[in-house]
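Researcher: For the annotation table, I need structure tokens for Olfactory receptor. Please keep the output clean. Sequence:
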Amino acid sequence: VSLQELMQPESGANGTAIAEFILLGLVEAPGLQPVVFVLFLFAYLVTVGGNLSILAAILVEPKLHTPMYFFLGNLSVLDVGCISVTVPSVLSRLLSHKHAVPYGACLTQLFFFHLFVGVDCFLLTAMAYDRFLAICRPLTYSTRMSQTVQRMLVAASWACAFTNALTHTVAMSTLNFCGPNVINHFYCDLPQLFQLSCSSTQLNELLLFAVGFIMAGTPMALIVISYIHVAAAVLRIRSAEGRKKAFSTCGSHLTVVVIFYGSGIFNYMRLGSTKLSDKDKAVGIFNTVINPMLNPIIYSLRNPDVQSALWRMLTGRRLLAWGGLN
């Protein structure tokens, strides 16, 4: 059955609510599916292993009990959550060769994906604020970024992201789906579902732009303002070594911010396009697989403090095991 035939509404389906969606996945060619399975499994294991290793190092190493690493530990949990929302279901469909996804499961995936991405968005803002206080307000840093403030920032991030994800999920549940039910993608998301709806999606798209402007625009503006102040403060440092050290703590964060916002903007600002192309799948891979996999590499695996903590943790366990044998 061709993709064009699948995309056509079933005869007599008008007015009948569909119970499931068909996710076509990344590739239609059967020969390429084992390759996709191996690549996605590898990416999933690397992401989960890398992020949980960093989280363990932050928890056991007293030197890493600072606000910056507290936020980084939370980011690691989010990355595991974000990739777990999409990749395991892709792997199970590749193994079973079943492409059908129940309507409820599709909305559940949509909710959790937007929840984790939303928290990520606010957490990156909290990290920018932390760098601003550390570099521009060093004398009052410990009081302004106390443990209470850190927990409040994380709790507020979760609360805002939960509200956003619930809003989009409830709004999506009000739409009618009565015709074509084939999604040319590998997970359920707003742009793909909008195109399949029989009812008008104008209000939903306006909601996405309005809430997206608040959810992404406000944090982005705060990050830019924070880094303007940081850049001004760093440029006032006289020693080249001091400037290099100050910028090195911000470089990783800025790299992640650019990748995160760049792929997100591309994904959701193309709602007007009538055809979903392979570009959308590529951006989807970036959002759901590559971003969570890159974060531990960009932030921590090139960080000497984390590297030494991971090494001590691994060698310490080996020494304990060797001592137990003797």
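Researcher: And a one-line annotation?
Model: The mean pLDDT is 83.
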